[in-house]
Every structure is written in C-alpha cells, then in structure tokens.
Specification:
Radius of gyration of chain A: 18 Å
Distance between the termini of chain A: 43 Å
CATH topology of chain A: Ubiquitin-like (UB roll)
Distance between the termini of chain B: 39 Å
Number of helices of chain B: 10
InterPro entries (chain A): PaaB, PaaB_sf
CATH superfamily of chain B: Ferritin, core subunit, four-helix bundle
Helix content of chain A: 10-25%
Structural class of chain B: mainly alpha
Strand content of chain A: 15-25%
Number of strands of chain B: 0
Pfam families (chain A): PaaB (PF06243)
Strand order of the largest sheet of chain A: 2-1-3
Largest sheet of chain A: 3 strands, antiparallel
Helix content of chain B: 55-70%
CATH class of chain B: Mainly Alpha
CATH architecture of chain B: Up-down Bundle
Structural class of chain A: alpha+beta
Strand content of chain B: under 5%
Number of domains of chain B: 1
Largest interface: A-B, 22 and 20 residues
Order of helices and strands of chain B: HHHHHHHHHH
CATH superfamily of chain A: Phenylacetic acid degradation B
Number of helices of chain A: 2
CATH architecture of chain A: Roll
Oligomer: heterodimer
Protein name (chain A): Phenylacetate-CoA oxygenase
CATH class of chain A: Alpha Beta
Number of domains of chain A: 1
Largest sheet of chain B: none
Radius of gyration of chain B: 20 Å
Shape of chain B: globular
Organism (chain A): Kibdelosporangium phytohabitans
Chain lengths: 93, 277
C-alpha cells in the first residue's frame, strides 16, 4: 500500500513557539495523517499542536540555486540582531 | 489553562507523568499503597488482578503485530497502544500484589513480574476476548474497538473508587483508552465503508469477535446492565457509520489460546530469571 501519499509533519512543542518540521509519514487522507503524526512524533510529550501537509503542496528552493539565493546575506552582519544583550530569563532565543 | 504572559506558557511544566513514581524497579514507588479502611483488601486485589490480566494479554496480542502491520505508521500506533496497556497492567498487578501479597508466586522477582511471568494459565483471570489468537487486521480492529469501549466505560467508573491508587490508575488510563477507541473506531468505519472486500472482511472480523462480548458484562447487576447499554450505544454508532450490521448472537467457543500465548510470553523470564536490561 505504498500508494498512500507522503505528508510532511510540523509540531509545535509549547505555546509561543513556532511549528517546526519534524519529519514525514504516509497516510490515506488528511485526517489519518494527523493521527499518524500523533503516534509517530508526539509520544514523549513533545507537542501541543500538529500541522500536516501533503508533500506535493510544498514548493521548495532548489539546491542548485543555493549561492545566489542565500550567500549574499552572509556578509551583511548589520542584518543580524547580534548587538543586543538578551536577558538571561528570556528563553528560546 | 491560561497564562498571564507568554513566558509562563513557555516554561509550563504541568504534566503529571511523575505521579506514578520515577523508579523502574517499583512502579508504585513513593505512593501510599495502604488499603483504605472499609475496603476489602482481597476484593480490591482481585479486581486489580483481573483488570491487569486483561491489559497484559491484550498487550501481548498487539505486540505480535510488530513487524507484521500493514503500514509502518500503524505498526507504531499498535505498539504504542500495546505499551499503554502494558503500563496499565504493570500498575494494576503491582496494586493487586500490595493489597494481597498472598496472590504473588514465591519467586525472586518484582511483584508485577512474578504475577505476569510466573503464574500458570489456570491462575489468569483475563476475559477470553483478549486471548483469541490469529485473525487479520480487521479482526484486530474489531477486537480493539470492543475491548477499549468496554474498558473505557469500566475505568470511567473506577475514578470513583475508594482506593486512591486505583483512582489514579483509572484517571491515567481513561485518556489512553479514549485514544485506543478512537483509533479502532476510525479503522472499523474506514474498512466497513470502504471497498466491497474491506467491508466483507470488517464484517467477518466483527462477527468473529462478537460471541466474546457477553462475557465482559455481568448483566445480573444494575451497574452491569448500565455498562452494557453504554457499550451498545457506542458500538451501534460505529457499526452504523461503517455501514456494517450488528452480528447475530452466537455461542462463544473455547479458545485454548492462553497456554501457547503464555508459553511464548513467559519463556524468557522463566529461562533467565536473573536477566536485566
């Protein structure tokens, strides 16, 4: 039954964080994909929210275009928020 | 739950997973296991033992699907459900042993291991539904639906138990069983309302399980009758949604499945009683 479509799974660990891509799975439909994601990716108390999306629906950047896409931002340090002091009690930064 | 600010939510740590002790050696470590006054210890031990045996044997049947499930995703789901039930069995058998130590076979093992691995078939009290061997995935889903629907209704009553250990075990189990029931019900509906072949096999699975339903309910008591009514209501809903029909009443056959199951389940513990891992 490998004709089940591939889904990508995103899990949000805690309130206030973003959904993060955790992996993929096969499922017959969207509803089953959410259930399967619960079983495969949230067994150890990881999640408060799950998103699934058919892998077909994702448009990705091409590895061949890596340099023109990403390299130009590498040397522009003023774009990075590295000049702020982050207080010790602000988590997840 | 509500939080005054976002940071509180980020650092929330409100789960109750440590409520059952942190030790792998004693599942009830740190828990007050004295029997409350007014509770018959032998009776308490007996009901914990019975419920523990059901979970233990059902868990073993689910474990047999490891490396045999139709899809990898469902294999993980079945293993998860088996593990949930094994956890229930562990707590219930440990509770039974604490309430009535005379139940425990005299071997150098933890209480729940002694009960699981060093009793013979005649001393097990599980319902026949869980020991049935073989069958296809549809049969497994029919059995899991019946089992989890019944057990969920039982656990929902157990949260009012006078014994606080049983209350805690039931409260934990309810969330697990609600998920098991949901998982099984979705498959029963999906297969029942699927193709001609899947419908036929789902109906056959349901028919094969049905003779073992009556044993779950003590219909002589009013609570037993209420439990049965609750069970029937859930089953009708799923059966209707799956375009299936309620199986005809049929006499349950002897299963003769428990001895071979125990021979396999207990073989390692008996051959290597000192093994740890």
């Amino acid at each position: 039954m490998s004709d089940w479509p591939l889904y990508e799974v995103f899990v949000r660990g805690k309130r206030g964080l973003n959904h993060v891509h955790v992996g993929s799975l096969h499922a017959a439909d969207d509803e089953m994909a959410v259930r399967n994601a619960r079983d495969l990716y949230t067994r150890r108390n990881e999640g408060v929210s799950i998103w699934v999306v058919k892998a077909d629906f994702i448009t990705a950047s091409s590895p061949d275009e890596k340099d023109p896409f990403f390299a130009p931002s590498g040397d522009k340090v003023y774009r990075h928020p590295t000049f702020y002091d982050i207080p010790d009690d602000v988590p997840h930064m | 739950m509500s939080f005054d600010n976002a940071y509180e939510a980020l650092t929330e740590d409100n789960d109750t997973r440590w409520a059952f002790g942190t030790g792998f050696v004693d599942p009830l470590a740190g828990i007050d296991t004295s029997v409350p006054s007014g509770v018959d210890a032998a009776e308490l031990a007996r009901s914990c033992l019975w419920l523990g045996d059901d979970a233990l044997i059902m868990s073993h049947r689910l474990q047999e699907w490891c490396a045999a499930a139709p899809e990898l995703e469902d294999e993980v789901a079945l293993a998860n459900i088996g593990l949930d039930l094994l956890g229930q069995a562990r707590l219930l058998l440990a509770r039974a042993a604490k309430a009535d130590p005379s139940l425990v076979p005299a071997v150098e093992q933890s209480d729940e291991d002694a009960l699981a691995f060093f009793r013979d078939a005649a001393d097990f009290h599980n319902v026949r539904l869980v020991e049935l061997g073989g069958g296809d995935f549809a049969f497994l889903m029919a059995r899991l639906l019946v089992f989890s629907t019944w057990r969920l209704a039982v656990f929902q009553r157990l949260v009012d138990s006078p014994d606080q250990v049983v209350t805690a075990i039931a409260a934990k189990g309810i969330k697990e069983l609600a998920y098991h029931r949901d998982y099984a019900a979705r498959w029963v509906v999906r297969l029942g309302d699927g193709t001609d072949l899947s419908h036929e096999r789902m109906q056959a699975g349901l028919n094969a399980v049905w003779p073992y339903v009556d044993e779950l309910f003590d219909s002589d008591t009013s609570d037993g009758a209420a439990l049965r009514a609750e069970f029937d209501a859930v089953m009708s809903q799923v059966i209707t949604a799956g375009t299936l029909s309620r199986p005809p009443a049929r006499e349950a056959a002897e299963t003769r499945s428990l001895e071979p199951l125990l021979a396999e389940m207990q073989s390692v513990a008996r051959a290597h009683p000192d093994a740890t891992w």
